[in-house]
Specification:
This protein is α+β, with helices and mostly antiparallel strands and about 170 residues long. It contains five helices and seven strands.
Protein backbone atom coordinates (compact mmCIF):
# COMPACT_ATOMS: atom_id res chain seq x y z
CA UNK A 1 0.00 0.00 0.00
CA UNK A 2 1.45 3.37 -1.00
CA UNK A 3 1.52 6.26 1.43
CA UNK A 4 -0.83 9.07 0.41
CA UNK A 5 0.47 12.61 0.61
CA UNK A 6 -1.47 15.63 1.77
CA UNK A 7 -1.17 19.29 0.92
CA UNK A 8 -2.63 21.86 3.29
CA UNK A 9 -4.28 25.00 1.96
CA UNK A 10 -6.35 27.88 3.27
CA UNK A 11 -10.16 27.82 3.26
CA UNK A 12 -11.70 29.24 0.10
CA UNK A 13 -15.27 30.43 -0.60
CA UNK A 14 -15.70 27.30 -2.73
CA UNK A 15 -15.34 25.19 0.44
CA UNK A 16 -18.58 26.54 1.94
CA UNK A 17 -20.85 23.61 1.04
CA UNK A 18 -18.28 21.02 2.11
CA UNK A 19 -17.74 22.76 5.47
CA UNK A 20 -21.50 23.17 5.89
CA UNK A 21 -21.98 19.40 5.40
CA UNK A 22 -19.17 18.45 7.78
CA UNK A 23 -19.97 20.98 10.51
CA UNK A 24 -23.64 19.97 10.58
CA UNK A 25 -23.20 16.21 10.50
CA UNK A 26 -23.59 14.80 14.06
CA UNK A 27 -21.32 11.89 13.11
CA UNK A 28 -18.40 14.35 13.24
CA UNK A 29 -19.33 15.99 16.54
CA UNK A 30 -17.66 13.49 18.86
CA UNK A 31 -14.68 15.68 19.76
CA UNK A 32 -16.48 18.85 20.75
CA UNK A 33 -18.02 19.39 24.14
CA UNK A 34 -21.06 21.33 22.93
CA UNK A 35 -22.31 21.37 19.36
CA UNK A 36 -24.95 23.33 17.57
CA UNK A 37 -25.56 23.49 13.83
CA UNK A 38 -23.78 26.20 11.84
CA UNK A 39 -25.57 28.32 9.26
CA UNK A 40 -24.08 28.99 5.85
CA UNK A 41 -23.88 32.66 6.86
CA UNK A 42 -21.73 31.88 9.93
CA UNK A 43 -19.47 29.60 7.91
CA UNK A 44 -19.15 32.21 5.15
CA UNK A 45 -18.04 34.77 7.76
CA UNK A 46 -15.56 32.23 9.17
CA UNK A 47 -14.06 31.71 5.70
CA UNK A 48 -13.79 35.47 5.17
CA UNK A 49 -11.97 35.85 8.51
CA UNK A 50 -9.64 32.97 7.68
CA UNK A 51 -7.24 35.49 6.15
CA UNK A 52 -6.56 36.97 9.58
CA UNK A 53 -3.19 36.32 11.12
CA UNK A 54 -3.06 33.39 13.52
CA UNK A 55 -1.69 35.95 16.00
CA UNK A 56 -4.99 37.85 15.78
CA UNK A 57 -7.51 35.03 15.62
CA UNK A 58 -5.59 32.49 17.76
CA UNK A 59 -6.73 29.78 15.35
CA UNK A 60 -6.07 28.53 11.84
CA UNK A 61 -8.02 26.10 9.68
CA UNK A 62 -6.43 24.18 6.84
CA UNK A 63 -8.17 22.20 4.15
CA UNK A 64 -6.46 18.82 3.69
CA UNK A 65 -6.07 18.02 -0.01
CA UNK A 66 -4.97 14.65 -1.36
CA UNK A 67 -2.02 15.29 -3.70
CA UNK A 68 -2.84 12.40 -6.03
CA UNK A 69 -6.10 13.88 -7.33
CA UNK A 70 -6.66 17.25 -5.61
CA UNK A 71 -9.63 15.97 -3.60
CA UNK A 72 -10.32 17.89 -0.39
CA UNK A 73 -10.53 15.10 2.17
CA UNK A 74 -10.84 16.98 5.45
CA UNK A 75 -9.78 19.82 7.69
CA UNK A 76 -7.04 20.34 10.25
CA UNK A 77 -7.40 23.05 12.87
CA UNK A 78 -4.85 24.78 15.04
CA UNK A 79 -6.71 26.32 17.99
CA UNK A 80 -5.88 27.99 21.30
CA UNK A 81 -2.74 29.30 19.63
CA UNK A 82 -0.48 30.58 22.42
CA UNK A 83 2.59 32.34 21.02
CA UNK A 84 3.97 33.17 24.46
CA UNK A 85 4.08 29.52 25.52
CA UNK A 86 4.75 28.40 21.94
CA UNK A 87 1.93 25.86 21.66
CA UNK A 88 -1.39 25.16 19.97
CA UNK A 89 -4.13 22.56 20.08
CA UNK A 90 -4.81 20.38 17.04
CA UNK A 91 -8.10 19.03 15.74
CA UNK A 92 -8.73 16.98 12.63
CA UNK A 93 -11.67 15.75 10.57
CA UNK A 94 -11.34 13.41 7.62
CA UNK A 95 -14.45 12.79 5.52
CA UNK A 96 -15.86 9.32 6.24
CA UNK A 97 -15.39 7.91 2.71
CA UNK A 98 -11.69 8.83 2.92
CA UNK A 99 -11.00 7.39 6.37
CA UNK A 100 -8.75 4.38 6.92
CA UNK A 101 -6.27 5.31 4.17
CA UNK A 102 -3.58 7.10 6.17
CA UNK A 103 -4.87 10.55 5.23
CA UNK A 104 -5.39 11.65 8.85
CA UNK A 105 -1.83 10.72 9.77
CA UNK A 106 -0.48 12.47 6.67
CA UNK A 107 -2.57 15.57 7.51
CA UNK A 108 -1.29 15.65 11.10
CA UNK A 109 2.30 15.29 9.91
CA UNK A 110 1.78 18.17 7.47
CA UNK A 111 0.31 20.50 10.12
CA UNK A 112 3.05 19.44 12.52
CA UNK A 113 5.71 20.50 9.98
CA UNK A 114 3.91 23.81 9.44
CA UNK A 115 3.58 24.50 13.18
CA UNK A 116 7.21 23.69 13.97
CA UNK A 117 8.91 25.05 10.83
CA UNK A 118 6.84 28.17 10.10
CA UNK A 119 5.17 29.16 13.36
CA UNK A 120 8.21 28.01 15.38
CA UNK A 121 6.01 26.36 18.00
CA UNK A 122 7.49 24.16 20.69
CA UNK A 123 4.52 21.81 21.06
CA UNK A 124 1.16 20.69 19.77
CA UNK A 125 -1.49 18.96 21.85
CA UNK A 126 -4.90 17.35 21.52
CA UNK A 127 -7.60 16.19 23.92
CA UNK A 128 -9.07 12.86 22.75
CA UNK A 129 -11.76 10.74 24.41
CA UNK A 130 -10.23 7.41 25.45
CA UNK A 131 -13.20 5.73 23.77
CA UNK A 132 -11.99 7.10 20.40
CA UNK A 133 -9.38 4.44 19.70
CA UNK A 134 -9.05 5.30 16.00
CA UNK A 135 -8.17 8.92 16.76
CA UNK A 136 -5.71 7.93 19.49
CA UNK A 137 -3.93 5.59 17.04
CA UNK A 138 -3.77 8.28 14.33
CA UNK A 139 -2.18 10.80 16.72
CA UNK A 140 0.30 8.16 17.93
CA UNK A 141 1.26 7.36 14.32
CA UNK A 142 1.91 11.10 13.83
CA UNK A 143 4.36 11.11 16.74
CA UNK A 144 2.11 12.30 19.58
CA UNK A 145 2.38 10.60 22.96
CA UNK A 146 -0.17 10.24 25.71
CA UNK A 147 1.03 12.45 28.57
CA UNK A 148 -1.97 12.77 30.89
CA UNK A 149 -5.45 11.50 31.57
CA UNK A 150 -8.32 13.83 32.43
CA UNK A 151 -10.88 11.84 34.42
CA UNK A 152 -14.60 12.22 33.57
CA UNK A 153 -13.66 15.18 31.35
CA UNK A 154 -16.29 14.88 28.62
CA UNK A 155 -19.98 14.13 28.93
CA UNK A 156 -21.44 11.61 26.46
CA UNK A 157 -25.14 11.15 26.94
CA UNK A 158 -25.64 10.47 30.64
CA UNK A 159 -22.08 9.28 31.27
CA UNK A 160 -18.68 10.93 31.53
CA UNK A 161 -15.61 9.67 29.68
CA UNK A 162 -11.93 10.13 30.32
CA UNK A 163 -9.86 12.20 27.91
CA UNK A 164 -6.25 11.53 26.98
CA UNK A 165 -3.92 14.49 26.54
CA UNK A 166 -1.72 13.84 23.52
CA UNK A 167 1.39 15.96 22.92
CA UNK A 168 4.26 16.22 20.50
CA UNK A 169 7.28 18.42 21.19
CA UNK A 170 9.61 19.98 18.65
CA UNK A 171 12.99 18.31 19.08
CA UNK A 172 15.93 20.21 17.67
Amino acid sequence: MSVETIRLRACEPEDLELLYRWENDPAYWCGDELRTPYSRYVLKQFILRAGQSVYESRQMRFMAVREADGLTVGVVDLYDFDPHNSRAGVGILIDQPCQGRGLATASLLAVRRYAFDHLRLHQLYAHIAVTNGASLRVFEKAGFTRTALLRDWMKRGDAFVDVAVMQVLERK
